[in-house]
Amino acid sequence: KRAYDGTRAADHSGDGKDGKLRLFITKDNCKHFPYLTKVINTLQEFATSQKISKILNKDLSSSFVRLEIIGDKKGFWLKPHKDIIEKLMTMMIWSNPYLESENLGTDLYDDDFKIVKTIKYQHNSGYFFSSGKDTWHGLELKEIKKERRCIQINYVSFETDWPVNNPT
């Protein structure tokens, strides 16, 4: 049985059951994920990062791309939190092959931790945002019948295998 603590650190049962439920795409494993690698490469392009920079009003020119495949299992929840400042942008793309409830999307909170909106968990859809002082989000404990799948993409300020291709 998994013992979730409300963080993405996931399984704290000591059995390491959730190690396979999160996978970062790296230079070492990217050959197994050619389509996701193409997504990463597109996000590395300076023109792409500049377009997203303008939308977010945040400089991404010296950032790195990070892409993670996530499979949340029954019992998973994520306490309200704000992303670390090193995450310059977070994007979630939903994959719902098991027809899970649309209520399994991200919950958005006000400063009193009251849910103000739940972003629908709809197959092949998603959202993105920039970290900030009023970006509380999480996932209340809800029924996951089989698996809540998503791809999380970040522009981050720390080094990954995927730097933005800054021409300067």
Word description of this protein:
By secondary structure, the protein is of the alpha+beta class. The protein has one domain: Jelly Rolls (Sandwich). It is built from two helices and ten strands, in the order βααβββββββββ. The relative contact order is 0.25. The mean pLDDT is 91.
Total number of beta strands: 10
Largest sheet: 6 strands, antiparallel
The number of helical segments is 2
Percent range for β-strand residues? 25-35%
The residue fraction in helices comes out at 10-25%
Mean pLDDT: 91
- The CATH class, by name, is Mainly Beta
Mass-distribution shape: globular
| CATH architecture descriptor | Sandwich
- By secondary-structure content and strand pairing, the structural class works out as alpha+beta
Q: For the terminal residues, how far apart are their CA atoms?
A: 51 Å
User: What is the CATH H-level superfamily?
Assistant: q2cbj1_9rhob like domain
Low-confidence stretches: none
Q: How would you classify the quaternary structure?
A: single chain
Give the total of domains. 1
**Topology pattern, helix = H, strand = E:** EHHEEEEEEEEE
Instruction: Assign the CATH topology.
Output: Jelly Rolls
The Cα radius of gyration reads 16 Å
